[in-house]
Protein backbone atom coordinates (compact mmCIF):
# COMPACT_ATOMS: atom_id res chain seq x y z
CA UNK A 1 0.00 0.00 0.00
CA UNK A 2 1.38 3.40 -0.95
CA UNK A 3 0.11 5.04 2.26
CA UNK A 4 2.19 2.69 4.42
CA UNK A 5 5.47 3.42 2.65
CA UNK A 6 7.36 6.44 1.50
CA UNK A 7 10.06 6.71 -1.12
CA UNK A 8 13.34 8.48 -0.81
CA UNK A 9 15.91 9.14 -3.47
CA UNK A 10 19.51 8.46 -2.43
CA UNK A 11 21.87 11.37 -3.12
CA UNK A 12 23.93 10.91 -6.24
CA UNK A 13 21.80 8.01 -7.40
CA UNK A 14 18.71 7.57 -9.48
CA UNK A 15 17.46 4.68 -7.32
CA UNK A 16 14.40 5.12 -5.15
CA UNK A 17 14.34 3.29 -1.83
CA UNK A 18 11.06 2.44 -0.15
CA UNK A 19 10.87 2.59 3.64
CA UNK A 20 7.95 1.50 5.83
CA UNK A 21 6.17 4.25 7.74
CA UNK A 22 5.16 3.34 11.31
CA UNK A 23 1.50 3.71 12.18
CA UNK A 24 0.24 6.02 14.90
CA UNK A 25 -0.03 3.31 17.54
CA UNK A 26 3.52 2.12 17.07
CA UNK A 27 4.90 5.64 17.08
CA UNK A 28 2.89 6.60 20.17
CA UNK A 29 4.03 3.48 22.01
CA UNK A 30 7.68 3.98 21.11
CA UNK A 31 7.69 7.67 22.03
CA UNK A 32 5.90 6.91 25.34
CA UNK A 33 8.51 4.26 26.11
CA UNK A 34 11.33 6.71 25.36
CA UNK A 35 9.62 9.38 27.49
CA UNK A 36 9.51 6.99 30.44
CA UNK A 37 13.11 5.94 29.77
CA UNK A 38 14.28 9.57 29.90
CA UNK A 39 12.32 10.23 33.10
CA UNK A 40 13.76 7.09 34.67
CA UNK A 41 17.30 8.08 33.65
CA UNK A 42 16.77 11.51 35.21
CA UNK A 43 15.68 9.94 38.48
CA UNK A 44 18.42 7.31 38.54
CA UNK A 45 21.22 9.76 37.79
CA UNK A 46 19.79 12.87 39.47
CA UNK A 47 22.55 12.99 42.07
CA UNK A 48 25.30 12.61 39.45
CA UNK A 49 23.69 15.12 37.03
CA UNK A 50 23.63 17.82 39.71
CA UNK A 51 27.36 17.72 40.44
CA UNK A 52 28.90 19.92 37.72
CA UNK A 53 27.62 22.71 35.46
CA UNK A 54 28.08 20.63 32.30
CA UNK A 55 26.08 17.77 33.76
CA UNK A 56 23.38 20.20 34.89
CA UNK A 57 22.98 21.37 31.27
CA UNK A 58 22.90 17.71 30.20
CA UNK A 59 20.10 17.15 32.72
CA UNK A 60 18.17 20.03 31.15
CA UNK A 61 18.70 18.54 27.70
CA UNK A 62 17.47 15.12 28.83
CA UNK A 63 14.43 16.86 30.32
CA UNK A 64 13.78 18.58 26.99
CA UNK A 65 13.83 15.12 25.40
CA UNK A 66 11.00 14.27 27.80
CA UNK A 67 9.15 17.25 26.31
CA UNK A 68 9.95 16.11 22.76
CA UNK A 69 8.77 12.54 23.28
CA UNK A 70 5.68 13.80 25.10
CA UNK A 71 4.75 16.03 22.15
CA UNK A 72 5.32 13.15 19.71
CA UNK A 73 3.24 10.73 21.79
CA UNK A 74 0.45 13.26 22.24
CA UNK A 75 0.54 14.15 18.55
CA UNK A 76 0.02 10.51 17.64
CA UNK A 77 -2.92 10.14 20.01
CA UNK A 78 -4.53 13.46 19.04
CA UNK A 79 -4.53 14.79 15.51
CA UNK A 80 -4.19 18.44 16.46
CA UNK A 81 -1.79 19.72 19.13
CA UNK A 82 -2.80 22.96 20.82
CA UNK A 83 -0.62 25.29 22.87
CA UNK A 84 -2.13 23.97 26.10
CA UNK A 85 -0.96 20.47 25.15
CA UNK A 86 2.57 21.77 24.59
CA UNK A 87 2.46 23.56 27.94
CA UNK A 88 1.34 20.37 29.69
CA UNK A 89 4.25 18.47 28.13
CA UNK A 90 6.59 21.29 29.16
CA UNK A 91 5.24 21.18 32.71
CA UNK A 92 5.90 17.43 32.91
CA UNK A 93 9.44 17.96 31.60
CA UNK A 94 10.09 20.80 34.04
CA UNK A 95 8.86 18.75 36.99
CA UNK A 96 11.28 16.01 35.97
CA UNK A 97 14.07 18.57 35.62
CA UNK A 98 13.36 20.12 39.01
CA UNK A 99 14.21 16.84 40.72
CA UNK A 100 17.78 17.17 39.39
CA UNK A 101 18.63 20.86 39.85
CA UNK A 102 16.84 24.18 39.58
CA UNK A 103 19.05 25.31 36.68
CA UNK A 104 17.94 22.17 34.81
CA UNK A 105 14.47 23.71 34.64
CA UNK A 106 15.83 26.80 32.88
CA UNK A 107 17.89 24.81 30.39
CA UNK A 108 14.94 22.47 29.84
CA UNK A 109 12.74 25.43 28.90
CA UNK A 110 15.38 26.80 26.52
CA UNK A 111 16.01 23.46 24.82
CA UNK A 112 12.28 22.76 24.64
CA UNK A 113 11.65 26.12 22.98
CA UNK A 114 14.24 25.24 20.34
CA UNK A 115 12.68 21.81 19.84
CA UNK A 116 9.21 23.33 19.52
CA UNK A 117 10.45 25.88 16.97
CA UNK A 118 12.13 23.11 14.96
CA UNK A 119 9.03 20.88 15.08
CA UNK A 120 6.85 23.78 13.97
CA UNK A 121 9.17 24.49 11.03
CA UNK A 122 9.16 20.84 9.97
CA UNK A 123 5.36 20.63 10.19
CA UNK A 124 4.96 23.72 8.02
CA UNK A 125 7.29 22.29 5.37
CA UNK A 126 5.56 18.92 5.34
CA UNK A 127 2.12 20.53 5.11
CA UNK A 128 3.26 22.76 2.24
CA UNK A 129 4.58 19.75 0.34
CA UNK A 130 1.39 17.78 0.95
CA UNK A 131 -0.73 20.74 -0.13
CA UNK A 132 1.38 21.23 -3.24
CA UNK A 133 1.26 17.52 -4.06
CA UNK A 134 -2.53 17.33 -3.53
CA UNK A 135 -3.22 20.49 -5.52
CA UNK A 136 -1.09 19.12 -8.38
CA UNK A 137 -3.14 15.91 -8.47
CA UNK A 138 -6.43 17.79 -8.60
CA UNK A 139 -5.37 19.76 -11.65
CA UNK A 140 -4.57 16.66 -13.69
Quick gist of this model?
This protein has 140 residues and is mostly helical. The chain contains five helices and two strands.
Word description of this protein:
With 140 residues, the protein is mostly helical. The chain has 5 helices and 2 strands. The chain has helices at residues 24-44, 46-49, 53-77, 83-98, 102-139; strands at residues 5-9, 16-20. The protein has a two-stranded antiparallel sheet with strand order 1-2. β1 and β2 form a beta hairpin. α1 runs antiparallel to α3 (53-77), α3 packs parallel to α5 and α4 (83-98) runs antiparallel to α5. The longest helix is centred in the C-terminal third of the chain and has 38 residues, at 102-139. Residues 1-5 have low confidence and may be disordered.
Output the radius of gyration. 19 Å
Biggest sheet architecture: 2 strands, antiparallel
Shape: elongated
Strand order of the largest sheet: 1-2
Helix content: over 70%
State which percent range the strand residues make up. 5-15%
Please tally the helical runs, counting DSSP H or I stretches of 4 or more residues: 5
Termini separation:
22 Å
Give the overall pLDDT as a whole number.
Answer: 83
> What class would the helix/strand composition place it in?
mainly alpha
Q: What letter string, H or E per element, gives the SSE order?
A: EEHHHHH
For the secondary structure, the number of strands is 2
Would you identify the regions where 5 or more consecutive residues have pLDDT less than 50?
1-5
Assembly state here? single chain
Amino acid sequence: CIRDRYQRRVRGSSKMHTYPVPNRGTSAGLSSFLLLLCLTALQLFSHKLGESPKLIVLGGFISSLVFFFGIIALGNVKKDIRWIDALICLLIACIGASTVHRICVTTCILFSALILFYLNTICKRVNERLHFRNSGKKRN
